[in-house]
Amino acid sequence: MSTNQPLLQPIEVGDLTLKNRVWMAPMTRSRAANPENKVFELHEEYYRQRASAGLIITEGSQVSPRGVGYINTPGIYSAAQTEAWKGVTKAVHEANGHIFIQLWHVGRMSHPDFHNGALPLSASATNPNSKSYTPEGFKETVTAQEMTLEDIKSTIQDFKNAAKNAMEAGFDGVEIHSSNGYLFHQFFNGTSNFRTDEYGGSIENKARILFDVIDAIKEVMPENRIGLRLNPSLNGVFGMTMDEETIPTFDYIIKKLNDYDLAYLHLSEPFTDVSKIPFAEQHIAKRYRPMYHGKLVINSGFDQEKGNEIIEEGFADAVAFGKPFISNPDLPERFASHVELAKWDESTFYTPGEKGFTDYPSLQEAKVD
């Protein structure tokens, strides 16, 4: 066992002491296949198996019915959903783990089938020209409905209520999903936000909704239990296109986050090709480490070696791993033992049931077999 690696050192996050810096990234798994979009015993086992992570960040969970854009994804807006999540948090805590829930609104990345025929909501009336995974299979997205100021106010309240529900459900904190082409990102981006009111136009206005949500959430939970995810270099996915204001917008957002005492900032390195975009930044952690004064978590494309390296170099405080945690439920133990990681099965990423979800053995179970 080799536990003196940077990844396996404890870390203070807010008022929490986390046992390592190998965090489980949020991943949609589409197992909440029930009419109420709530988790159940299968999720309890899934997250319990992965409680050796320094921090588990759950799959994205809708803050309201209007935030839904994919089938079989859980929510955190109803009493039934909140009660169901209590089983997950209890299972993780009994295994000495910590868990945050990711709060999600997909915005225009949805379909009228999810909203009784109504159009999805977004910053402006735009179409991501993508596909939405509906109960009847993949369907082409449509032009969204521009949110009114009342819609925005209501959505801010939805995030606040979801955070309150998360605390009631026993979560250690929340992560605001302001990344990957979903609602907040649609406000940030000049190709999806054409508003002329206080939520559009200038960089400050395009970012306003995010800070309004943070200010609302911190009324119902400690500020140092709020995390945030951003993807500054997303390009060519879900209709997001980088332009000359993209990087300056994220520079502004990340610098302003220093005004808050957040748990962490979670950034994604590019997972699409931005090499031909002159204003794109290829090394997100290296760019934003000097700008952000709090705990910085980095994600996308890291293995054990690269993860240890980026922490040792001081560009990140923790690394969030996605797919490796699917097939290696005890990933930190495997890093400590320097064993080869088990391969994941992509065909089961989004299929209902135990297969590809809770049936990957731990290292000890694999040795017994």
Describe the structure using short key phrases.
alpha/beta; TIM Barrel; eight-stranded parallel sheet; 11 helices
Number of domains: 1
Q: What is the number of E strands?
A: 14
* Helix and strand element order: EEEHEHEEEEEHEHHEHEHEHEHHH
Measured distance between first and last alpha carbons: 21 Å
Please state the CA-atom Rg, rounded to the nearest Å: 19 Å
Strand arrangement across the biggest beta sheet: 3-14-13-12-11-10-5-4
Please mark out the parts with pLDDT under 50 across 5 or more consecutive residues, or reply none.
Answer: none
How would you sum up this structure in a few lines?
The protein has about 375 residues and is an alpha/beta fold. It has 11 helices and 14 strands. An 8-stranded parallel β-sheet has the order 3-14-13-12-11-10-5-4. A two-stranded antiparallel ribbon has the order 1-2.
Explain this structure to me?
- The protein is α/β, with parallel strands linked by helices.
- The chain has a single domain, classed as Aldolase class I (TIM Barrel).
- 30% of the residues lie in helices and 15% in strands.
- The protein has helices at 41-49, 79-94, 149-168, 183-188, 203-217, 246-256, 284-288, 304-312, 323-327, 331-337, 363-368; strands spanning 11-13, 16-18, 22-24, 56-62, 99-104, 121-122, 131-134, 137-140, 145-146, 173-177, 226-230, 264-268, 296-299, 318-321.
- The strands form 4 sheets. Strands 3-14-13-12-11-10-5-4 form an 8-stranded parallel beta sheet. The protein has a two-stranded antiparallel sheet with strand order 1-2. Strands 6-9 form a two-stranded parallel sheet.
- Strand 1 (11-13) and strand 2 form a beta hairpin.
- The longest helix has 20 residues, at 149-168.
- The chain starts with 10 loop residues before the first strand and ends with a helix.
- 49% of the residues are buried.
